[in-house]
Design goal:
- The chain is 39% helix and 29% strand.
- By secondary structure, the protein is of the alpha+beta class.
- A four-stranded antiparallel beta sheet has the order 1-2-6-3. Strands 4-5 form a two-stranded antiparallel ribbon.
Length: 119
């Protein structure tokens, strides 16, 4: 496992929604393929991988004044794991996200209670 092809997990609303169905999303290096991704996810997270889909995303062309440039091309893997198994990284982020939502709700309630009625 000297050459890791998994750069990092992608943490977004869309990836959290997919994680609820057992599909996890990872950012990959350019030379990654399904077989290598399957092996590395199995070794790193100790889960059984059922299916791997890889998506190539071409970089967008961006302009600043007269000069144009291009963002890097990226590659993502959608990894479906066996039912009943979970990857801890995504679960920790979900808990953090839920805690932030609860704090926001509590702050909104406090603000509403502190408001004085208008005469």
């Amino acid at each position: 496992m000297a050459n890791l092809v998994i750069k990092k997990p992608i943490i977004s609303e869309k990836s959290f929604a997919a994680a609820g169905t057992g599909v996890y999303v990872f950012l990959l290096t350019g030379n990654a393929n399904k077989r290598i991704v399957r092996e590395q996810v199995t070794k790193l997270f100790k889960v059984k991988v059922e299916k791997v889909n890889i998506v190539n995303i071409p970089g967008k062309i961006k302009r600043v004044g007269k000069k144009t440039g291009q963002r890097s091309d990226t590659k993502k893997a959608y990894v479906k794991i066996a039912k009943g198994q979970k990857i801890a990284i995504f679960e920790e982020e979900k808990k953090k996200d839920q805690n932030l939502k609860i704090k926001d709700q509590n702050e909104n309630v406090k603000v509403k209670n502190d408001e004085k009625p208008k005469k």
